[in-house]
Amino acid sequence: GSVVASYPYDDSPTHRLTGVYSKSADDEVFKYLAKAYASHHPIMRTGKPNCPGEERETFPDGITNGAQWYDVEGGMQDYNYVWANCFEITLELSCCKYPPTSELPKEWENNRESLLAFIEKV
């Protein structure tokens, strides 16, 4: 896990593991939507999720192009964009993929304003 808003494309023509910016035709729209979410999240907006084992990982403005972060062949956000014309971003909301129940109220508080800002963009 991490704390970042990721946008298409997740896959790149070279299929390099990381570091390839894979720009979609709607790149600016996707960045706008990702920033709408990230800018309201107290951790995400810093671009420094500080996840255990990944302390050096940073994301400017709390967002990343999926393939630039790591290449995923056959990902859902790419599939939906290409085949159904659905604009989808992936939200990584926690360093822990399965946070304990006791942390869920804090996670809700961290994400509430971001979610409302994102919904307003619809």
UniProtKB/TrEMBL annotation:
Domain Peptidase M14, first and last residues per copy:
1-122
InterPro entries given for it?
Peptidase_M14, Peptidase_M14_domain
Question: Keyword annotations for this protein?
Answer: Carboxypeptidase, Hydrolase, Protease
Q: Which residues form the active site?
A: 92 (proton donor/acceptor)
MF GO annotations: metallocarboxypeptidase activity; zinc ion binding
Q: Does the keyword tRNA processing apply?
A: no
What GO biological process terms are annotated to this protein in UniProt? peptide metabolic process; protein processing
Q: Which family does it belong to?
A: Belongs to the peptidase M14 family.
Protein name (database record): CBPD Carboxypeptidase
Provenance organism: Thryothorus ludovicianus
